Amino acid sequence: MLDQNEIKHKSESLIELLTAQCADLEKLLDLARAETDAAKSGNFLGVLDIVSDREIIGKKLETYHRQISELRSALGENAETYRRNEIANRVVEIANLTIEQDQFTHKLLCAARQDSKETLERSASRDRGHRAYLSAPTKGLAYEGNF
After folding, report:
1. What is the tens place of the pLDDT at every residue in 134-144?
2. DSSP the chain
3. Which of 74, 82, 98, 141 minimizes the number of CB atoms within 10 Å of its CB?
4. Class of domain 4-136
5. 6-24 tens-digit pLDDT
6. pTM for this one?
């Protein structure tokens, strides 16, 4: 059983971690929105840069999650009080907003991939047509200049 000082210290640590987690989740949400904007404008190098930045924040969030879980476990039944904390609720809200934003971006990127695939298929078809025309033994009058 934890004494009052330990509970207070662990509770304060938990709140500090939740606050830091919330701040990083807000950064992650901002990056998710920037990623959507980059995808909308076809700036795929920008998307890649943003994904790299998001990965860094993701690693920090994993560390927070581990530390928060340890503190909640140490606090035992008192942890339920902190789960309802305003900061914890905000963390969940931001995480959900980020997921929604990512789902929207995913749809944009899938559509861009499909457009690229169709463009490449049309280009390949045109290339085959041009090659077939150029390799034909006889061409039209305009091609040979006989008109």
Report:
1. 887 776 655 55
2. ---HHHHHHHHHHHHHHHHHHHHHHHHHHHHHHHHHHHHHTT-HHHHHHHHHHHHHHHHHHHHHHHHHHHHHHHHGGGHHHHHTSHHHHHHHHHHHHHHHHHHHHHHHHHHHHHHHHHHHHHHHHHHHHHHHHHHSSS--HHHHT--
3. 141
4. mainly alpha
5. 777 777 888 888 889 999 9
6. 0.69
